[in-house]
């Protein structure tokens, strides 16, 4: 009971913080910053408590709140933690104080508005992850746009207006299609043999014809794929990243992009399993194309922020590959990869922000040999670079490796078209090492070159922020077992939902052959048991 | 029918009438300026409370058989729209305290109340005209600007055309059914012979004209731009609400089928798209709102596609959400002594630096009009499109939603001006006086309540 209250508090704490900010005099920038930081830190502490209390063995929602909101429509205020969202909520809460503290020196204009916006964004993001009701989810999903629009548009770079409008118009287009699909889905439920409800749990029960499923999945997918972003819907991302202030980039890479993959995992694929089966080759191909194409584009960039932006496209391609593989290891790898990318890309964007504050340029050609003048900076940068490549003992390795393993197992035996597709994803690892190492080599090593010299190395604030990130990166790389236990039940549920046919015809089939279901269930369990074993072996052998 | 019935049933109307009479007499007693506005405010408030009381009491009486009836539903609509007029009175206090503003406004509201209770085409027409005629004069009140005359004249001529079309349609209906009851309209919807169909088309077009649906929309941007701010706010919210609620009354709870669906879907869809597209290029704030109101009229007529019994709730909720947010924007708009430049959209540049509260409030209004959650505009739009889709018109719903997407750009453009542009040298702007401020605070409070507890409002309608 107490934990339920705590979860609601976690969700609404940023709103309270933003309201409190309203009463601070605009001139008192220090009070504003302090208040925002304290709010985020309290939120992180409370979220950590919830994470520790989270029972990995339990199925279903934990710390659930369900209150009628728009009673006439069957809309509930329903939030809760489950294996799908627990790590992402923790990641969001973890990045919160980092974003706030990271912007202390960079944001000098409209400080109060900035932190209020960041806090409201935090609220919307947590709400999106926690919502267990489709209507509530959509509200939070769409509400995220507004603070991000302001963050890029007000505190961004030179072409910020162009970038922010491109971001909003792109995303809103996806959302409008999703809205149409949401309405259609919910109001076709009575015909499909369900009650009118927006609750995810009820929506998973519904049996829709394949044609309807396909149309709805496409509508949801466009919306989610824009957020991920998947090639060819990715063109907003580099602009948004480059023009956004550091804090905006960190939130964007750290959490916002995960919304797309989380949407696929929680809604897109499980709601429309038969259509997902049908479209698997397309999703798989697009995921692999994103991995390779993103990596290729990262290779040729001259703007350091763009390198990381395109690498995000590539890394989120792995997440999609893992999710669509429907292999237990692949799915868990995808979740790990989401968290890992949030930490690593977030950290890299922070570090780019730090060097940008010192030198005011993001042109890679302007830099060189920073290892000699900025030793601490360079060590941390190198660690994050290696984590981005996926070196063992870092979080990047756990995610990527498991995704690839999962994809291979799912598309085995070798030789088929599907296997060729998933095998080409390995190319992304090679390219990833190439662009990141080449970038680090030009950036950190060679003759010393920087637009502003002498350069100050990291101060205490920056060191603290980066130490937290590096610690988390290693923790996930060395001890991936603990977080993976929390997501295991959800990964199984997800696979069960997507792998089970759910057309109206499939009900009829079940009615006819009621007997074999028990055997089917038994075999699935057996498969789960065998599937669980190798992943323990992997995570055990890693350190 | 006893005199008590007449007194009770028409209580809101009587209170408005009393207000008008007192306002006419007020100058003789030396009551001027602020006191006169307070009088008008009291009258509107009392009428709204009376209507709300009738709704709560469930008062359901046909006071004048076949012409005028009161039902809880119509009382609720009266109460809501009368309440929406309160910010208009507050806003007008500074510029129009003396003179006929309040009298004209109250007359128009009287017409509106009559409209919602009408049982026959006679009272309906009377209400419609009584609501519109004072507004032509209201547009002219800001006569310091040359555009005002042009706007009033355009509005008058097109309003007259609408009335003529309406009367022609009513004549055809009367010729066919020998009845002046508004029920003749719904029965004509069922029959579908040539005369009935022509009547329906004519009457619907009259409503399209009054609500500014493309291609009958050309008057709206001019009239909105030419009028002074409180009048524009009044036209954009109360008049639009009146026209739409009258249409709901006429269509009753009949679920549309066949060609009637296309009649109320195609032109509104075109309005949504065209209104949103044309608004993108406007340089005047009020003109932009004029085009935006064309698009919103489109959404409102979309509500007619849904099942008959859902129509009233959808329109009423939309009217509240749209009205409150529009009112909010107008009440917060910075004042300038030069009416002509007051609504140049460029003057909003850097507004956040100068007046943070105003900028935030206008931004909220814009986001709500754009239909972005969690603001009330989203729930209102959801309600309408849900009904359309539930009735089975998926294609129209999707096209309408995509049309509404087009609108996001120009609402965000206003926010961009206020928050993302550098400060500009602006002609002296007065801070909104405390009356306008209280009007905006009032709307803001309602808007927040609508955002947090939409379920309560929907349940109450």
Question: What does it look like?
Answer:
The complex is a heterodimer of chains A (543) and B (461). Chain A is 75% helix and 3% strand. By secondary structure, chain A is mostly helical. Chain A has one domain (2-541). Chain A has a two-stranded antiparallel sheet. In chain A, a hairpin with a 4-residue loop joins strand 1 and strand 2 (75-81). Chain A is globular, with a radius of gyration of 23 Å. Helix content of chain B is 76%, strand content 2%. Chain B is built from 21 helices and four strands. Chain B is globular, with a radius of gyration of 21 Å. The relative contact order of chain B is 0.09. Classes of the chains: A mainly alpha (543), B mainly alpha (461). At the A-B interface, strand 1, helix 5, helix 6 and helix 7 of A face helix 18, helix 19 and helix 21 of B.
Gist of the model:
By secondary structure, chain A is an all-alpha fold. Chain A has helices at 2-22, 29-53, 86-102, 111-130, 134-143, 145-155, 160-187, 200-203, 210-227, 236-243, 246-271, 273-299, 304-325, 328-359, 370-373, 375-389, 395-411, 417-424, 426-444, 460-478, 481-499, 504-512, 516-541, and strands at 62-70, 75-81. Chain A has a two-stranded antiparallel ribbon.
Q: N-to-C terminal Cα separation of chain B, in Å?
A: 29 Å
Give the N-terminus to C-terminus distance of chain A in angstroms.
Answer: 38 Å
Number of helices of chain B: 21
The total tally of domains of chain B equals 2
Query: How would you classify the helix and strand content of chain A by structural class?
Result: mainly alpha
Sequence of strands across the biggest β-sheet of chain A: 1-2
**Overall pLDDT score of chain A:** 87
State the shape of chain A: globular
Tell me the count of domains of chain A: 1
Instruction: Count the DSSP helices of chain A.
Output: 23
Point out poorly predicted stretches of chain B: none
Q: What composes the largest sheet of chain A?
A: 2 strands, antiparallel
- Report the count of strand segments of chain B: 4
Q: Looking at the structure, what is the overall shape of chain B?
A: globular
Helix content of chain B: over 70%
N to C succession of SSEs of chain B? HHHEEHHHHHHHHHHHEHHHHHEHH
